[in-house]
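User: Hi! I'm working on a homework problem where we have to compare a predicted structure to a textbook description. Could you give me the structure for the chain below?
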Amino acid sequence: MPYECLQVRRAGPIEYLTLNRPDVRNAFNDRVIEEFTDWAARTAADATLRIVVLQGAGRVFSAGGDLAWMARGAMLDGAGIRTEAGALHAMLLAIDRLPQAVIGRIHGAAIAGGVGLVAVCDVAIAAEDTQFGFSEVTLGIVPAIISPFVVAKIGTSAARELFLTAARFTALRARELGLVHRVVPSIGLDAAVDGCVAELLSAAPGAVIAAKELLRELSGHRPDTAIDLTAEVIAERRLSVEGRAGVQSFLSKTAPPWTI
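Assistant: Happy to help. Predicted structure tokens:
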């Protein structure tokens, strides 16, 4: 489908995906959700793509829900609201489940649903002046659909404070909570993203996919119940073409075949 709200730029095995609605602070509406979902389906099937950099155009990363869209949504009945919520959940889940590594380039502000987008990034790098917040309760609603993804990152305790108070918090607090992983001066944001891309390109593509799958499957396991899963994963990886090539490259002090 042609995209109106997303810009896609490909550079070899890296794709730069820009949420491009700067006039409304990159807010979500039904078209954004549809485009993100379509993009994620196409991306998941692209074995030549290794890294996605997710970013927002203009002054902020994303301010969450589009107010005009939300106003129209106020006319929906319960079934319509549940359908709309399901579409947003499917979008976030599709990004969260991508086999490729997803880097979030976060700047300006990430509010409400925008924080949900941050939460489904594998590595989130924020400019130090970025502001975060869950504003939903000030509108009489709650951050319901993004909550599973956000709580997985920041935990229930922090969510209780931030969901209930709608308090804004800084990039440094976001890093303390695990929502973002690196905080850098604004002028160094692109360099930090480029550095992360270089790190990920040194990793075997299949190993990245396997690591993401392992982390999902580990959820709910205790250390004493995880051995069957973890032993199977390491056996598969050590016997894989990548695993054998990586060990051989290490022993021979040569670059592995996936190095660019």
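For your comparison, note the following. The chain has two domains: 6-201, 205-252. Residues 78-96 form the longest helix (19 residues). Good luck with the assignment!
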